[in-house]
Design goal:
By secondary structure, the protein is of the alpha+beta class. About 40% of the residues lie in helices and about 20% in strands. The chain has helices spanning about 15-35, 40-60, 140-150, 180-200, 225-230, 230-240, 250-255, and strands at about 70-80, 95, 100, 105-110, 115-125, 160-165, 175-180, 210, 215. It has a 5-stranded mixed sheet. Strands 2-3 form a two-stranded antiparallel ribbon. Helix 4 (about 180-200) packs antiparallel against helix 7 (about 250-255). It is globular and about 65 Å long.
Length: about 260
């Protein structure tokens, strides 16, 4: 709606009106959420909504400081056929030059004064302990989405991709990954390591110890723990010793930053 009103980049004089737009939109989606989820404890649900409203208001205020990049496209999708998408979305997946075909939706595409684009993915979680270009394969969206933008807008410069932890929980931190020769090479190395593992058909669970805590491991953060059970770390230690050579692509991937 800010884009439709031609209020981007947002100026301080427009902030009160922008807050009214935000309040109306939040009330509309809040009512839809009540109907969809039918919360059993209204007080808890309303408290959650108030927290989200505070985060959004702070986010809107911080837009006054961000004039280097101006929002251009919202929910820019490729290979997805459902949901509310930007009109510039395409139904086909995007083939990236690093050897992978990608399906997804970029939350926000921004453009700077020179015309260069930036892909932004919003996060509502806490900021991880470590953040790099690919962080051992854990952080791929900034690089992959920047590469996707190049294919969607051929001939147009793409500056970077970024993660924006856009809540108080994430301290409104922005993590940007430039798109250059070194990050492209790192992307190719990630895909090559994955290709080797897939070609070998050897994909055992082999959780790593978390660097900040030797007593904890990645199993504690995995969504599939219910499938593996609570003792995967003990079983995987045998696999790591017996099949260390076959797991080398995985170890190489984890070392990529």
């Amino acid at each position: 709606e800010l884009a439709d009103q031609a209020w981007l980049p947002l100026e301080a004089a427009r902030l009160p009106e922008a807050r009214l737009l935000l309040a109306r939109a939040f009330e509309r989606f809040g009512n839809e959420a009540r109907d969809q989820y039918a919360p059993s404890i209204d007080g808890v649900f309303e408290a959650g909504l108030r927290n989200v409203a505070r985060d959004l208001d702070e986010w809107l205020t911080r837009m006054l400081e961000e004039h280097a990049f101006v929002p251009r496209y919202f929910e820019l999708a490729f290979g997805l056929r459902r949901g509310e998408r930007d009109e510039h979305s395409v139904p086909e997946p995007v083939k990236l030059p690093i050897g992978v075909t990608l399906i997804g939706a970029i939350d926000l595409v921004e453009q700077d004064r020179s015309g260069a684009l930036r892909a932004t993915d919003f996060k509502t979680s806490r900021v991880p302990e470590t953040l790099g270009v690919v962080d051992g394969g854990r952080t791929l969206q900034p690089l992959l989405y920047a590469l996707a933008l190049e294919q969607l807008f051929p001939g147009q410069k793409v500056a970077s991709g970024r993660l924006y932890y856009c809540t108080a929980r994430g301290d409104y931190r922005s993590h940007e990954v430039p798109l250059d020769d070194s990050t492209r090479a790192l992307g190719r190395s990630v895909i090559a390591a994955m290709d080797r593992m897939l070609a070998a058909g050897f994909l055992p669970a082999a959780p790593a110890q978390l660097p900040e805590d030797r007593e904890r491991n990645e199993c504690e953060r995995c969504s599939y723990r219910a499938v593996c059970g609570p003792y995967e770390l003990e079983r995987s230690s045998v696999i790591k010793q017996r099949d260390h050579g076959r797991l080398e692509p995985l170890f190489q991937l984890r070392g990529m930053r």
